[in-house]
């Protein structure tokens, strides 16, 4: 019997470079940095409390998206997912390895994001973690720094562990490649669509981002290049993701504040 074709987007397998560094160490490093960031935000009274309407909104959207993460990365089943909101004018959001999500109030307030658009941002950032783009970046750094001997000693992870420690502090500031961003766009569209959020909101989101960029380049855009090509790529993916959205159970209109 022929294999049934998978519905949704196709972005291929994970990079072999990601296997050069242990996922556990990167996730532990990310968890430590995330905790430090939250502690600093709390100290500055910038960390939203659990009753904050926008935080409740983010967590409600995340609860719908996260169940669809496991198909993209089996490790996600055991991640201790967290979603937090930080008071800042930065137009930024991220998901660190291990499922540590943060949004800044600036991206919600300045762009006046709808729930569908929030889901596009969240899906995109979760996709980076699921596709292990940070691990891949560190793997490439390790391969470059340790030379050809590393590639012939796949089991000798002692040196690689040192590299993870050396570069672990960069988890929050890693710059992803255009290929990484394209992957995250497509996987994020699918995650959000399966969760019942309209993937066409990805197009309206990037139009808002482009408009915001005309005044002052927001931090999120500096590492997420926008433009007509990106919107065109999303439009090309609609035949793969809109049917998933049409079949999905939609969130209640009263589910988020």
UniProtKB/TrEMBL annotation:
InterPro entries listed in its UniProt record: Mito/Outer_Membr_Metalloprot (IPR051156), Peptidase_M48 (IPR001915)
Family: Belongs to the peptidase M48 family.
Name assigned to this protein: Peptidase M48 domain-containing protein
Names of required cofactors: Zn(2+)
Cofactor annotation remark: Binds 1 zinc ion per subunit.
GO molecular function: metal ion binding; metalloendopeptidase activity
GO biological process: proteolysis involved in protein catabolic process
Record-level GO cellular component terms: membrane
Keywords annotated in UniProt: Hydrolase, Metal-binding, Metalloprotease, Protease, Zinc
Pfam families: Peptidase_M48
Lineage, highest ranks first: Bacteria, Pseudomonadati, Pseudomonadota, Betaproteobacteria, Burkholderiales
Span of domain Peptidase M48: 58-236
């Amino acid at each position: 019997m022929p294999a049934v074709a998978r519905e949704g987007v196709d972005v291929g397998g994970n990079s072999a470079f990601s296997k050069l560094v242990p996922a556990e160490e990167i996730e532990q490093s990310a968890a430590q940095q995330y905790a430090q960031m939250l502690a600093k935000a709390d100290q500055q009274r910038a960390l939203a409390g659990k009753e904050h309407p926008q935080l409740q909104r983010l967590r409600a959207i995340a609860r719908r998206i996260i169940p669809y993460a496991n198909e993209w990365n089996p490790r996600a089943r055991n991640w201790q997912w967290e979603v937090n909101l930080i008071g800042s004018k930065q137009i930024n959001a991220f998901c660190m390895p291990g499922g540590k999500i943060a949004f800044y109030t600036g991206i919600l307030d300045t762009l006046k994001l709808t729930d569908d658009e929030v889901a596009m941002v969240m899906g995109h950032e979760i996709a980076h973690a699921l596709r292990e783009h940070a691990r891949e970046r560190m793997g490439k750094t390790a391969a470059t720094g340790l030379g050809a001997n590393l590639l012939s000693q796949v089991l000798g992870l002692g040196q690689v562990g040192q590299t993870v420690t050396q570069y672990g502090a960069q988890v929050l500031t890693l710059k992803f490649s255009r290929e990484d961003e394209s992957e995250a766009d497509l996987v994020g569209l699918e995650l959000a669509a399966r969760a019942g959020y309209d993937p066409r909101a990805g197009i309206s989101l990037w139009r808002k981002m482009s408009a915001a960029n005309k005044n002052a380049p927001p931090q999120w855009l500096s590492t997420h290049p926008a433009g007509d090509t990106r919107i065109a790529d999303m439009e090309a993916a609609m035949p793969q993701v809109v049917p998933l959205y049409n079949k999905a159970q939609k969130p209640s209109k009263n589910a988020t504040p």
